[in-house]
């Protein structure tokens, strides 16, 4: 990625030790999504369902 | 497994359990920009200084930033201010993301539980903590954690008041803020923050004495002590005056914020103080003295000072995260190993 998908500006890559990140100095794009879904009940995983079954 | 993370204005720390020990990883939430030409290459490589190179500039990050700032006569830059992401630091988001990832590491398994500290909205400024909280949560979820914010004061109670059924008043004297939380059987009944802490003390003392603020911070963290009487003059003199003022300010706000209805009749409330700003020797005694003098609307059973004031918040997050794990992953791992061995 060298062009910002949000504003078309130049993307910079920064790294610190073993970790790295991208940033757009024009619009602040950081390639991290923000969740806006309602928190709600999470669907039960199969594993939890089996555990529940064996406990009962 | 599960992890706790303290996202602080000055220090970012993670906590995780390793057998009977809690392991902490800490990094100073600060950096300094230095011209590459001014910097001897060996200064960077030999001492394993954490840094980012960008064109002809070097950003020294974390614990070394303060030393480099003092050596090169530069000011440190801070991704956070008053407990939340700073609105006047352009690089706040990438810097925070890098430091957090460096401190917390990858999740041990997908959706590992992680509780990160988040301040209460301050009562003395109109800052909102929501943008900050959502941004940090997004970083962590993007890394593969199942993250959850925990109020900073509540985290102190998880860390320090387990033996008292998570009941009491927790106060975290940080850098950008002071967070206060009153909890009754692990349920927060009152919480607030004030946008003053160690940074405020440093800024005031720097202004009063015409000293660079990074210099003041170094003096304060090195060998500064609090006492009931001190001499006027110098950075130490100014620090004592503003320290006392901060204590009074926090206590005053506790008096106005806590309603008598918040506290069960006849309950003696233990108070625990922590946070980097509570570190100087003499702090606990001075705080006790000023608290006794105030008109607190409930009865206090005692004041304690956390053993490791810089670690309380991260440890509390870990305690909360561990108690919220749906399945015991250690057990699950052992089962998987046993199954593999049988094949
Ligand atoms: N030995 C010491 N003596 C005095 N002050 C200290 C000492 N060590 C750290 N501090 C101060 O403590 C503060 C940092 O404490 P802490 O790490 O608890 O804050 P934080 O969690 O980063 O900030 P906040 O909770 O406000 O977001 C800074 O102001 C720092 O200068
Ligand atoms: Mg803190
Ligand atoms: Zn952009």
From TrEMBL, chain A:
Residues 4-27 form the Zinc finger FPG/IleRS-type domain. This is Zinc finger FPG/IleRS-type domain-containing protein. It comes from Natrinema versiforme JCM 10478.
Automatic annotation (TrEMBL), chain B:
Residues 325-337 have a biased composition (Acidic residues). SUPFAM superfamilies: Actin-like ATPase domain. Residues 322-343 are annotated as: Disordered. It holds the Pfam family Volactin. This is Uncharacterized protein. It comes from Natrinema versiforme JCM 10478.
């Amino acid at each position: 990625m060298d062009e910002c998908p949000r504003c078309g500006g130049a993307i910079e890559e920064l790294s610190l030790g073993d970790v790295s990140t991208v940033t757009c100095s024009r619009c602040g794009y950081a390639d991290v999504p923000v969740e806006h879904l309602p928190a709600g009940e999470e669907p039960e995983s199969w594993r939890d369902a089996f555990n529940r079954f064996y406990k009962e | 497994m599960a992890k706790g993370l303290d996202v602080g204005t000055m220090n970012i720390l993670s906590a995780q359990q390793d057998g009977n020990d809690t392991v902490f990883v800490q990094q100073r939430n600060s950096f300094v920009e230095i011209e590459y030409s001014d910097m001897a290459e060996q200064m960077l490589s030999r001492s394993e200084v954490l840094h980012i190179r960008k064109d002809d500039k070097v950003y020294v990050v974390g614990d070394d930033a303060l030393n480099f700032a003092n050596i090169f006569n530069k000011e440190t830059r801070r991704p956070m201010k008053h407990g939340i992401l700073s609105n006047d630091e352009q690089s706040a988001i990438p810097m925070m993301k890098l430091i957090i990832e460096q401190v917390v590491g990858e999740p041990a398994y997908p959706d590992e539980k992680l509780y990160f500290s988040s301040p209460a909205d301050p009562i003395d400024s109109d800052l909102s903590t929501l943008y900050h909280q959502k941004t940090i949560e997004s970083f962590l979820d993007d890394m593969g954690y199942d993250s959850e914010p925990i109020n900073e004061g509540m985290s102190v109670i998880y860390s320090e008041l387990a033996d008292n059924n998570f009941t009491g008043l927790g106060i975290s004297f940080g850098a950008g803020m002071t967070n206060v939380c009153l909890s009754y059987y692990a349920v927060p009944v009152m919480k607030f923050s004030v946008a003053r802490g160690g940074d405020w003390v440093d800024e005031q003392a720097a202004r009063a004495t015409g000293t660079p603020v990074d210099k003041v911070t170094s003096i304060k963290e090195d060998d500064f002590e609090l006492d009931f009487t001190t001499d006027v003059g110098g950075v130490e003199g100014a620090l004592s005056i503003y320290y006392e003022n901060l204590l009074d300010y926090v206590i005053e706000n506790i008096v106005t914020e806590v309603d008598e209805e918040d506290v069960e009749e006849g309950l003696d409330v233990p108070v625990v103080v922590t946070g980097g700003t509570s570190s100087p020797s003499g702090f606990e005694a001075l705080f006790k003295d000023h608290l006794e003098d105030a008109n607190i609307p409930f009865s206090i059973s005692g004041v304690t000072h956390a053993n490791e004031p810089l670690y309380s918040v991260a440890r509390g997050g870990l305690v909360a995260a561990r108690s919220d794990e749906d399945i015991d992953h250690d057990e699950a791992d052992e089962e998987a190993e046993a199954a593999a061995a049988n094949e």
